[in-house]
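Appendix B: a complete holo record

For completeness, this appendix reproduces one full record from the ligand-bound portion of the collection. The bound molecule is S-adenosylmethionine. The inputs are the chain sequence and the ligand SMILES; the output is the full three-dimensional arrangement of the complex, encoded as structure tokens. No fields have been trimmed.
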Amino acid sequence: MVAKTGILYGISVGTGDPDLITVKGVRLLQQASVVAFPMGVGNQSGIAQTIISPWLISEQETCPLSFPYVQNEEELRLAWKQSAEQVWSYLQQGKDVAFACEGDISFYSTFTYLAQTLTYYYPSVKIKTVPGVCSPMAVASVLNLPLTVRNQRLAVLPVLYTLEDLEQTLGWADVVVLLKVSSVYPQVWEILRRLNLLEHAWVVERATQPGQVIYDELEKQSNLRLSYFSLLIVHVKPSDPHS
Ligand SMILES: C[S@@+](CC[C@H](N)C(=O)[O-])C[C@H]1O[C@@H](n2cnc3c(N)ncnc32)[C@H](O)[C@@H]1O
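The structure of the chain with S-adenosylmethionine bound, as generated:
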């Protein structure tokens, strides 16, 4: 008898604090025979792997998948194909696979490439996802600020790739969230300084993780050395509750 094909669950595990995963996420994570996650760099655990470690059950198989930090399309496609093959081999045996994703699964996640590649090569694949806490929400909570209120317009830029759009975006948005800010921080700082916006900007590094750092008073911080897990938020037009 041919075993029923397993299901791939894409599970949002939140931004760092293991308690930020949803109840549904934990349930599906623990029910899956195989738990996959992006492999860490060097000998270190990946961030999603670290977040879920308190929730794993000892009988579960783990499946680290390689998603290299490279720009080369060919290299990336090969890595996604290899990861898809690994996951498919478990699904074909009738095993469910839970893929743990840092933050939210639909928000700039490597899971999307895995899911698209699997669907391309194995169209019968069954995939379900569980939403979760993404980094802008976590950062707003850490700063004790609302992300947006009333009629405010929110813009999100992965600024490493969209630096040229920043100034124009600051012209129309009320709140701007910059992901992937670490390597372009000095250029972003210069633009915010010129537009007089540093007073209403914050950087949060490793939000909700053990090494969390909040940077305010950015006027004094033109050259921060930030880790990849850093996000900058600017309240371009701060809300006035009495207006
Ligand atoms: C590829 S995106 C992944 C986003 C993730 N799926 C989410 O829901 O937030 C990576 C970027 O998200 C931001 N980020 C993710 N987690 C973060 C955290 N815990 N603290 C600060 N920034 C974070 C950083 O800007 C980082 O460069």
